[in-house]
Amino acid sequence: MHQYSRGKFIKLAAAAGAAVWLDACGLGRGKKAGQTATAVDTLPEVPATLVPEPPAPMLPTMVSSGDPRYDILRLGYNRRIDYHPETIALCRTTEDVSEAVRYARSRKLPIAVKSGGHSMEGYSCNDGGMVINMGHMNEVTLSADGMLTAGPGCTLSRLYDYLLPQGRLLPAGSCGSVGLGGLTLGGGYGLFARKYGLTCDHLIAATMVDGNGNVHKVMGDDELMWALRGGGTGNFGIVTEMQFSTQRAPATLKAMHLKVSRLTAIRAASILKVWMEVAAAMPESCFSGYVLNGGTLNILITDFEHDRHDIIPVLQPLIDVAGPVTIRNPRPLYKMLPNYYGRANPLYFRNSSAGFFNGYDDVAPFIEDVFDKIITTPGMIYQVNTLGGAIADKEKELLSCYAHRAYPFISEVQAYPQGSKSEIRTAAATSYILSTTRKHGVLNHYVNYCSSEFENWEQAYYGENYTRLQAIKRKYDSDNAIQHPQSVRG
């Protein structure tokens, strides 16, 4: 097991649509509309000497045990996951994916789907099956009318680095190495979601290969499009290309930060109560994250529309209980976002949803108990992020299967062990927290923050939409060729 100290990898302990913000990656160069940008390959990267540029056209490259690329490609972002598939299909086109599916079916190999490899439980890999790796399918283009076409393997850092210099934005998460495919299919939220909605709300067309290898073009109000907007990845098929509407990119972004050290569970809970009240009153252009890292609390607020003098009165009740706020001057968005791209290289961790909340009343019965466990167990982080705003739009709810739009807050629990004994303690603490919240009626969770410990995960992720998703599964993958431990069952 790799050892990591929290001080080493936490750059600013707050996040949006990803686990934590780690060491920032560099900023790439943008291109003009109509040009194509090719993103970096799915993590972990394979040395260029091991992946020579293939001739075109070609069938997918099959990588199996014994190939020098195998042990690099089978791993995802989470070093805790250690699966060994029979073969890995390196795909570059929709036709490659179709051929890979037929190959897997002919050998009765279960199929896992990987775009960025950030599945919290490693569901983008498997033991003894096939992994369809779409890290090479990462081209991104922008049309003159602002329509974005992207491959599922395009990482968020490359997406932003390509779009922002052109004055356009696709609202998404902040972790730079996350793949756009998995993020979109699970929903996708971040710094801009309260103003513009989820990433999946901007999905207007897609190309999908079903469980038989057949190719489908999806658009409009098609039932399959409804399912792709929040229905998770690795369920009904494999999305190989996506088209999105985009927004005019804000010119600048400002960040505000409060930090409180040596907290008790009682004090941390009292600040959370005020933070939730303040966060609910923030303009939709604001995002905020409450992050308890051991006994240290970091609160981040970002905003891309309002002057600091407009925001401070809203924050005043929080300042009164948490202390002074540090305000950074607004910076160009394309320069500011890379601060939150996070660590690019894989690490060893646990991270899962800890539930959606309407407000402090939902957490009051148990939060001091949870915070005590966070404070007394080295390596633990508990985080609450803001939702609400445009995410809760009723029209968007009808057009997508994302089931938890009404909640204004989402939480997650993270564990970063520093050795085998620490792994045992942090794993036990994580289980205790999830069990505690479950006993107090916190049952709904975000599919992109999945956990193998969730009971009744079908309803936890999809609510009443699960039955409808099952019908779609039966239509496009009746033999369950594409699967993982928490994939939709027909």
Brief characterization of the structure:
This protein is α+β, with helices and mostly antiparallel strands and 490 residues long. It has 16 helices and 20 strands.
What name is given to the CATH topology of one domain?
A: Vanillyl-alcohol Oxidase, Chain A, domain 3
Distance between the termini: 37 Å
Largest sheet: 8 strands, antiparallel
Molecular shape: globular
Structural class: alpha+beta
What is the beta-strand fraction? 15-25%
- Average pLDDT for all residues: 90
Number of strands: 20
Topology:
Layout: H1 6-9, E1 36-38, E2 61-64, H2 70-73, E3 87-90, H3 94-106, E4 111-114, E5 130-133, E6 139-142, E7 148-150, H4 156-163, E8 168-169, H5 180-186, H6 193-196, E9 203-210, E10 215-219, H7 223-228, E11 237-244, E12 247-248, E13 252-260, H8 265-281, E14 286-293, E15 296-303, H9 308-322, E16 326-327, E17 331-332, H10 333-336, E18 350-357, H11 360-363, H12 367-376, E19 380-386, H13 394-399, E20 409-415, H14 420-439, H15 457-462, H16 466-476
Helix pairs in contact: 8-9, 8-12, 12-14
Structure description:
The chain has a domain at 6-24 and 252-462: Vanillyl-alcohol Oxidase, Chain A, domain 3 (3-Layer(aba) Sandwich), CATH 3.40.462. It is built from 16 helices and 20 strands. Helices cover 28% and strands 21% of the residues. The strands form four sheets. Strands 13, 14, 15, 16, 17, 18, 19 and 20 form an eight-stranded antiparallel beta sheet that branches. A six-stranded antiparallel beta sheet has the order 1-6-7-11-9-10. A four-stranded mixed beta sheet has the order 2-3-5-4, with helices on one face. By secondary structure, the chain is an alpha+beta fold. Helix 8 (265-281) runs antiparallel to helix 9 (308-322) and helix 12 packs antiparallel against helix 14. The chain has helices at residues 6-9, 70-73, 94-106, 156-163, 180-186, 193-196, 223-228, 265-281, 308-322, 333-336, 360-363, 367-376, 394-399, 420-439, 457-462, 466-476, and strands at 36-38, 61-64, 87-90, 111-114, 130-133, 139-142, 148-150, 168-169, 203-210, 215-219, 237-244, 247-248, 252-260, 286-293, 296-303, 326-327, 331-332, 350-357, 380-386, 409-415. The radius of gyration is 21 Å and the shape is globular. Strand 14 and strand 15 form a beta hairpin.
